[in-house]
Amino acid sequence: MGRRGQSEPLLRLLFLGLSASALGRIVKVPAGPLVRVEDTEVAIPCNVTQYDGPSEQNFDWEFSTNPAQDSKFVDIISTWDPSFTSQEYQDRVTRGDIKLRRNSNSAVELVIGNIRPADQGVYRCTTPSTDSVFHGNYNAAVEVKVITDGLTVTGSKTRSMSTWNLSEGDSFQLRCSASTNSSEHTHLHVSWEFRNALAWQEILSLTHEGKFQPGPEYNERYISGDVRLDAMANDIYRLSVSQALPSDEGAYRCRVSEWVKDADGSWQKIQEKSVDVAKVVVQPTALGVFITRSNVSVTERDSLYLTCNFTTDRSGIFQAEVTWYYSESPDGPMADAQMLLSADRDSVISDSTLISLSQVDRSSYHLLVRDMGIEDSGYYFCQAALWVPQYNGSWYKVAERTSLPVTVEVTALEPSYHVFLNASKMPKFSEDPTELECRITEARNAEANIRYTVSWYYRLPLRSDEVVKDELLATMDADWTLVVGERSKQRAQNGEIIFSKPAVDTFRLRIQWTSEADRGEYYCIISSWSRQRNNSWVKIKDVASMSVSILWSTQDYALTVEAVKLKPFFMAGHTFEMTCKVSSRNIKSPRYSVLITAEKNLNDQSNPNGTTRIISLNQDSVVRREDWTDQDRVDGVVLEKVQENEFRYRMYQTQISDAGLYRCVVTAWSPGGGGMWREAVNGLSNPIQIDFQTSGPVFNASVHSDNPTVYRDELVNLLCIITIEGTAFDPDDMSFDVSWFAVRSYAMDRPPVFLASLDRKGITTQARRNGSSDVSLARIAPLEFQLRVHGCEDQDFGNHYCVVTPWVRSAAGIWQQETEVKSKPIFVTVKMDVLNAFKFPLLIGIGLATLIGLLSCLIGYCSSRWCCKKEVQETRRERRRLMSMEMD
Predict the structure, then answer these.
(1) Could you tell me the residue range of the domain that residue 729 belongs to?
(2) Which SMART domains does its entry note (predicted)?
(3) Hey, which residues does 474 pair with through a beta bridge?
(4) I want to staple 150 with a disulfide (CB 3.0 to 4.6 A). Which of 105, 182, 229, 815 is the partner?
(5) How confident is the model at residue 437, as a pLDDT?
(6) How many CB atoms lie within 10 A of CB 369?
(7) pLDDT (tens digit, 9 = 90+) per residue, 801-824?
(8) How many domains does the chain contain in total?
(9) Which helix (H) or strand (E) holds 369?
């Protein structure tokens, strides 16, 4: 299969070669006869196909005048044998009059430069054989007829001058005569061509097939009828141009070619002639456009008069078209300009209400704009175009120019007025209202279409060497829309600053509550606006007022607070009472808020952490308990307002723990904006001391444990023992709050951790624990409290101590809280039991080792019993055989 696959391409090539050999060589020349004109260049092609041998083939050309009458063929030229040429053609071949032109390896052309009548006859093209087998045709012949030149081309003009001077837009016609008296049936191809500074380009042609063919640059003009080619009598071909353009200036010629149809049906150009017809000069139409005035100033509501003039050198019939434009920029593009009014070539003027256009004379057009407004300021220019009639009744625009713009400035009809600013309400204190009125006075020339708006400004008073900064408070647009500045935006939204217009000529600024930040200078600016024709508003004038200073005499706030103890001596259980008297200066309508504080740590009065906020009374007389958390004496403290500047504090059923320094903290408030109160100043009273002189018992606390060192998961017992020195009390008259704490370190350098507590009512509280250990708390004796830690863990180690708060019942039956006492710590150590820790792992390890050994013995026994049984039996048989042989 592999060999067969490789031989298939070779067989295919062999088959193709045999097929080619069967078809044979084919030599081709054009089908004759070929009609050619005397003294023209003739090229006769010849090509060969389906040949063997080298790709480049050679050709021999021969000629016979009449081979039918046994006229011999004469050698002309060969591609491979220089000696092939006969003697009678030697000179023409040497001169190059006759030559061969190779087009490809298998095609050549016999070129005869100036064919003669004697060259009429039969030409034969022969190819030497390079084939392995002689088969096919090796030559081909074609007949060539030579006719005399019968083509005549002449140019004729409607004017005697060779140069035509035209004006832009004029029409012109050029003519040429072309005819032939050829004996053969030929056709003419007539083309009109134009040349300026560049090469010749085709205008319009009448082809040998009778079709009109415009050049690429003249296609649109041909379609529109501007360029025409007419075949007239007497073999005249006329080129007509209806309107001359500046680009039409140049030379014109008529080019005529003669065509014949060969035997194969194709057209062949046999000769070509041309004649220069005329030189055309096109003079562009001169047009100048200008406005008689340069810069114009017009007062608002007056009229604008402008005249557009144009000049031209064109005579004859023409019509002018004038258009007026307006632009905001002198150099803006034409597309952005606004057309005001126009007069076409028929003097038809477009319609407008306030603008009119009139023709003064043939070259002057007058523009009138009535009721000029501020928005009409800008640049005005006119554009003129000249139109000329054409032969077909249409009009052609020959020139168009635009004038230079005229600057028109419309000055507003300004009203005359003054602005007066006064303070109708001046503050005497902070938070007083301020009211400013900005008024228009002595207004003149104020028409009905004039509108006034206001802008308010604030100026911060600075030193003389500093730059004055003006801040915009608010401004009004032409439609009276208020735009508030950043400085006053939030206050205006809250209603603290009000901008109003109570009258046509009056604007008002009111600050409801004037603050220190409002001190400074204020001024207003009145702007006048004029309504335009399009109902828009244009600002025409700004007038500023004199500034008004908003200042008031200020003094520092002063506040004095005095605390007085009403009862000089009292005992525990009695009521403590003191008053706070307040006096202030330079505060308008003050109100006071009072806070009662206590400093329990008498040894360190400057320590703020030792200050307790007890009760407060705000400026609206609302009472609030602050840090008073004694649930047994929820209503034990009272703060009330006796007078506007006097407040009374009472504390019922005082206890020993209430000892300390008591003060009144007073804050003065003054009325603020929106019914709010503003803090003015704070004051602190003198301290009032509560000190109980008693000879009661002294309590102490200590912690004891029989075994503070334990192993993990064991029990720790801690005892908090209370001792009493001095007067003895009945156990029923004593009660204790006991709390347990632990410090998880050796050196007491960490914060304590709360463990559990037992209050005097027997309620137990425990902290949340993260481990598995637990605590329990119990009172085992009147003066002993026990803490148990069950299932101790490593995290239960540390210094443990108790905090005791004694409570003693007085003779009057009132429980009094005594001073809190704290025991010394005892360190609890939690150890690990090594024997118990390793007991279970050792037992597990021994058990696993024993189990694995037994399992190994069992596996060995089974292997020896079953797997090795056959081998042992064979060994015994061999021994028996050896023994029997010895015995033999």
Answers:
(1) 698-832
(2) IG, IGv
(3) 456, 484
(4) 182
(5) 94
(6) 23
(7) 999 998 888 766 778 788 888 999
(8) 6
(9) strand 364-369
